[in-house]
Amino acid sequence: MSKRKTPCIVTSEEAQRQEEIIKQLRMKNDLEKSKTGKQKHYYIATFGCQMNAHDSEKLAGMLEQIGYMKTDDEKEADFIIYNTCCVRENAEQKVYGKLGYLKHCKDNNDDLIIAMCGCMMQQETVLNTIKSKYKHVDIIFGTFNIYKLPELLQAYLETKETIIDIWEEHKDIVEDLPSIRKYKFKASVNIMYGCNNFCTYCIVPYVRGRERSREPKDILNEIKELVADGVKEIMLLGQNVNSYGKTLKEKITFAELLRRINEIEGLKRIRFMTSHPKDLSDELIMAMKDCDKVCKSLHLPFQAGSSRILEKMNRKYSKEQYLNLVNKIQEAIPGIALTTDIIVGFPGETEEDFKDTLDIVKKVRFSGAYTFIYSKRTGTPAAIMEEEVPEEVCQRRFNELQEVLQPIVAENSKEFLGKKLEILVEERSKNKDSYLTGRTDSGHLVHFEGDSSLIGQFINVDIIEAKTYYLIGKISDN
Ligand code: SAH
Ligand code: SF4
Ligand code: F3S
Fold first, then answer.
1. Total of domains in the chain
2. I need a labelling partner for 316 at 20 to 30 A (CA). Which of 72, 296, 340, 476 fits?
3. Number of the ligand 2 atom closest to the C-alpha atom of 303
4. Are 11 and 144 contained in the same domain?
5. pTM
6. Read out DSSP for 68-115?
7. Are 21 and 160 found together in one domain?
8. In whole angstroms, what is the distance from residue 68 CA to residue 39 CA?
9. Per residue in 155-176, pLDDT tens?
10. Is 343 touching ligand 1 by the criterion CB < 6 Å?
């Protein structure tokens, strides 16, 4: 198989076809297992954003139906999938680094199957590099056809030849894929795919295609099923959730969708990401204020402070518009926790421009931020812009940004000291054995001493210590 254009498919028939293949593979697997007594394992590494992580949950769902069992040990796996990201160069470097290591695994185990998928695979140059330099990869597919994993695996098992299936675009959405959730009590739900914004630095619209919203009924049904299965908190996913509904026949906005989701009985918390400031409407602010299940936190990337740079980035708002929007949100929803994404070193960024970025950070006083040094992505308009900012200048600005940001985040965190907060307990703490970790409505992490039986429950904790990026609590007496 090789690269091809957007196929025309009927999605429900397609899902059924894959289901059939899953059954056939399952029978084959069960038969082999009864002969050899050996259970097959899969290992999935996710390199990208929440969107990618959610795709990995769907891949895991299909593999478990086929009869594979999850392992966290790459060496134990019979099937390894790398679900890749290409948003910045270092994300790609990580994948190439690991791919080299996989060669050893394959040398030691002839039966090992290695698959690569995700955003990186949508780029012709990456595909060519893998084909020529990493011949130990058996199956390659992209972001538009993850639901075809069963068919691709079957084709590989039958031919033992490298299978490559990358699509340019896909306007339909295949519903009802099985999915394995990391947590029983919280889940991610795609409300839309792709992106139409073409920020000039960003590769996502090229590797994830045009914006497509899911039908509200499909979203609501999925959430109802999740709630029936024990889910209390959902994260609605989209590259720009604020433009939800624009591609649908039924006139519906993101604000209206939130109101409908808020009605679902048994659901406790609704989160969403990502919001683009240009599309954040008054209607959405009102919906966030009215809907009791919508968490009082908002991720609102501003990327750069200077209006001149924002224009070059094609973000479609100015510094003043961003600050006015934040004011409006903070007035309507007092105490809302705001987080953001910031890029330093975009082509042409001067010291003056960078000061505007620092100014926004000081004015908005974010609860947290993801900060990045601009990374040139071939094929994007910014890649051919002049006045690249030298690496050492980028690094210095990046450090300066941390110096301004961190005390603000720390001060925000201190506001919680002595307060009683409700958290959803998520898991055992990674750093301290007897500790558990939970999350507040505002998205803050709280570590506290407690018993594993609390995982998945809402409890109250008293905050006794505030660190920059997390809080320490004690289970409250009442
Ligand atoms: N759709 C989301 C985010 C997608 S990518 C949004 O618009 O907010 C996540 C973050 O990666 C972006 O917000 C941006 O800050 C960062 N990013 C994207 N492309 C980048 C690049 N070429 N260099 C550095 N950071 C980048
Ligand atoms: Fe990239 Fe901009 Fe789309 Fe976000 S909105 S995915 S930053 S193009
Ligand atoms: Fe996400 Fe990276 Fe793709 S950020 S959409 S996995 S390029």
1. 4
2. 296
3. 7
4. yes
5. 0.93
6. -EE-S-GGG-SEEEEEE--SSHHHHHHHHHHHHHHHHHHHH-TT-EEE
7. yes
8. 7
9. 999 999 999 988 877 667 777 6
10. yes
